[in-house]
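Q: I'm a student working through a structural biology exercise. My instructor gave each of us a protein and asked us to get a predicted structure, then write a short paragraph describing it. Mine is Stage V sporulation protein AEB. I'm not confident about reading structure output yet, so if you can add a plain explanation after the tokens, that would really help. Here is the sequence I was given:
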Amino acid sequence: MWPFFFWAFVVGGGICVIGQLMMDVGKLTPAHTLSTLVVSGALLEAFNLYEPLIDFAGAGATIPITSFGNSLLHGAMQEAEKHGIIGVLTGMFEVTSSGISAAIIFGFIGALIFRPKG
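A: Happy to help. First, here is the predicted structure for Stage V sporulation protein AEB. I'll explain a few features afterward.
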């Protein structure tokens, strides 16, 4: 069990280090860094490399933003096989809707409970 935690930490931390280096060394804005990581997750999924990474690292691969790109492409391809071109659009929203909804709901609850400073 401990090796699983270790590799989740190493992989997830590695993805975060790459993002931080993109901003610090590459002088990219957070928006550029975010977009690049999402696209890299989609590219890894396109070459069937992200699913083995998830099997290996678990939450270390599913928590970082690269997983969002993976989910978008995975859902789009799955639904495209069933419903054709319209499935590309519906698949992206179907797979990612729960995560986006949770972010909106928890953000709203946080805004109700806490007062921003400034």
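A: Here are two points you could use in your paragraph. The helical segments are 2-24, 30-46, 50-57, 59-62, 66-83, 85-113. Residues 2-113 form one domain. It's a good idea to check both against the output above yourself.
Q: Great, thank you!
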